[in-house]
């Protein structure tokens, strides 16, 4: 599995993706002291790539919102606390992402409104 991340910048409410790496580096690493490192780290949430793709070939990251077929509800991709594997969290329980990733479509992120 390729180790990749998307980063959510809490200060501006925006996802920073692969094409915006330079922007992230300037924002996150433009500091001079240890205190600034800690302060800066709290401004970002790192969302790891699951190593899986949806039915359209789109990469699935933690925090993504996904839909099954044409159903109305969307569900969030999270890590199961016990098994530590990516799952889809729904009101009826959790389903392993490994079992259903070819049946779902990424429609957005739980961190931002609209499509990613």
Q: What would you say this structure looks like, in words?
A:
- A hairpin with a 6-residue loop joins strand 6 (75-79) and strand 7 (86-90).
- The protein starts with a strand and ends in a 7-residue tail after the last strand.
- The longest helix is centred in the N-terminal third of the chain and has 8 residues, at 21-28.
- It is α+β, with helices and mostly antiparallel strands.
- The chain has one domain: SH3 type barrels.
- Helix content is 17%, strand content 40%.
- The protein has a five-stranded antiparallel sheet. Strands 2-1-3-4 form a four-stranded antiparallel sheet, with helices on one face.
- It has helices at residues 21-28, 34-41, 97-100, and strands spanning 5-9, 14-16, 44-53, 59-61, 64-68, 75-79, 86-90, 93-96, 104-109.
- The chain has three helices and nine strands, in the order ββααββββββαβ.
Helix count equals: 3
Q: Strand arrangement, largest sheet? A: 8-7-6-5-9
Number of E-type strands:
9
Mean pLDDT: 80
- The helix/strand series, from N terminus to C terminus, equals EEHHEEEEEEHE
What class, by secondary structure content? alpha+beta
Determine the strand fraction and express it as a percent band: 35-45%
List keywords for this structure.
alpha+beta, SH3 type barrels, five-stranded antiparallel β-sheet, 40% strand, 116 residues
In short:
The protein has 116 residues and is of the alpha+beta class.
Topology:
Elements: E1 5-9, E2 14-16, H1 21-28, H2 34-41, E3 44-53, E4 59-61, E5 64-68, E6 75-79, E7 86-90, E8 93-96, H3 97-100, E9 104-109
Antiparallel strand pairs: 1-2, 1-3, 3-4, 5-6, 5-9, 6-7, 7-8
């Amino acid at each position: 599995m390729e180790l990749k991340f998307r980063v959510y910048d809490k200060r501006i409410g925006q996802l920073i993706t692969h094409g915006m790496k330079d922007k992230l580096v300037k924002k996150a690493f433009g500091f001079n002291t240890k205190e600034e490192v800690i302060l800066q780290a709290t401004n970002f949430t790192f969302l790891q790539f699951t190593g899986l793709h949806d039915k359209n070939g789109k990469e699935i990251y933690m925090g993504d919102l996904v839909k099954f077929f044409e159903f109305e509800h969307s569900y969030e991709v999270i890590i199961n606390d016990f098994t530590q594997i990516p799952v889809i969290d729904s009101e009826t329980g959790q389903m392993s992402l490994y079992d259903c990733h070819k049946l779902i479509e990424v429609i957005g992120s739980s961190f931002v409104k609209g499509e990613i």
